[in-house]
Design goal:
Number of domains: 1
Mean pLDDT: 93
Number of strands: 12
Structural class: mainly beta
Low-confidence stretches: none
Organism: Spongiibacter nanhainus
CATH class: Mainly Beta
Distance between the termini: 34 Å
Oligomer: single chain
CATH topology: Jelly Rolls
Number of helices: 2
Protein name: Cupin
Strand order of the largest sheet: 1-2-3-10-5-8
Largest sheet: 6 strands, antiparallel
Length: 153
Amino acid sequence: MKLPVPLLDRLKARADRIMSRTPNKVIGEQYLTRWHIIPKNPLFNIYLHHVEGSDPDTHLHDHPWLFNCSIVLRGQMKEFLTRRSRPLTAGHLTARMGRAPHRLVLETPDCVTVFVTGPKCRRWGFYTEEGWVASNDYLSGEGNGRTVNSEFR
């Protein structure tokens, strides 16, 4: 689904104002910067993401929330799913359940998205040849959220 252009333009203007603030979280170097649009809470959250790098892994991953939705405000990504891929361009709205495996690859230098999550209900992880692996086992303990442990490269 694509948002109407006037709504997309309003969201982009709001995103520019939010991105002038100090971010709430930075994951990795030139990967993902996050701002909370509403105060973080256990029921649902709305984030603004500035994505500057593709997902670092080659495996699909899922999320810890019951559901999540994203709206691409600027840029373009390709979303790889279990059996297919699809482009996500400016104005594109996509929704997925938390267990839906996917991987995002930038097709432009960066991308800005609104990301909505439901309540956290599980751990998240990666789908490898050996099966599902929890994120804390798959990713290196150095804490940057981008380095994959050597056994999964």
